[in-house]
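Dear U.,

For the methods section draft, I wanted the exact inputs and outputs in one place so we can describe them consistently. I've listed the two proteins in the order they'll appear in the manuscript figures. Please don't edit the token lines directly; just add comments below if something needs changing.

First protein:
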Amino acid sequence: MSPERIYLDHAAGGVLLPSVQKEMLRYLVGIQASPGGGHREGREARKEVEKARQRVADFLGAKEAEGVVFTSGGTEAVQSAIHGWGGSVGKGTLYLSGMEHPAVESAARGLEGGVLSWCGCRWMGRGGTDGKG
């Protein structure tokens, strides 16, 4: 990225800080085993995943690291969260705006027994449940 440009498209990725790149390289070229493997390298990879999980939990102030879930990306994270929430609350109404990411709408439409209600959203983020925004 050149100094003349400002990168604003962080929807699916972004520029990595050099410190992040350095940390990631340890895993991209060093530990290359599946954390689910039963061999020594797999156990080493799993240990690193658990250390990362604990670091994230500590950063977020979470009581238990087991509650930290890593996903492959935003779509998987959104769908897991919505389906997990939907399964715990049962039938109800989920309010969505026209500004939702397609992954949110897709996951919401997959909830069984619930009702989707569309909220309008004005240009300043103010909205209502009448669908007019």
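Second protein (the one for the lower panel):
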Amino acid sequence: MHYIINRCPISIHSLNGKYAHALYSAALKRDELKKIENSLNTISNMLTQNKNIRDFIYNPCNKKSDKREALMRMNRESNLSETMKNFINIIANNGRFNCLLEISNVFKDILSAHNGEIKVLVTSARPLDSLETKELSFALQSYIKKGQILNIVSKIDSSLIGGLIIQIDNDRYIDLSTRRKINEYESVLNESLNL
């Protein structure tokens, strides 16, 4: 008997990541990635938008079987695949209902990587204008492979004072902030004063 091992397109080390990777592998093998993504989106939306459902699913006093049935009902309209039913059963059996949102988020990250998207988190002291964003996007092209797509997410942190911090797919980290430079200068000055 031969087993096909579907390598995860990104590195994952968390327990939630293991669940997301297992779901990704099963969905990829059965060509159900889009269907699983839709089912997870339905569950995520229900958990984030409906406090009653979230409280019911996360409450450890409620029976696993009742929670399982609630998740199945949420997805009935989307015609759940066997893969998703099996995933919900595994989550239920292992009592991991409180991890559903994080598993869903990790699955989305895996799916983005599968589709050739590279997530870039750009933290700046102030919002970047369109020209700066365009120039940054052009500069970041050298960090990705041909055919990959940059997905730039911006974040503001005024404590940087100036400059940028760029995180590429959780693998590479580039700190070009003024705060880092000031910290380095302080460190050098403190060392020289302590001589």
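Candidate sentences for the figure legend, describing the second protein: Residues 116-193 form one domain. The chain has two domains: 15-112, 116-193.

Thanks,
Y.
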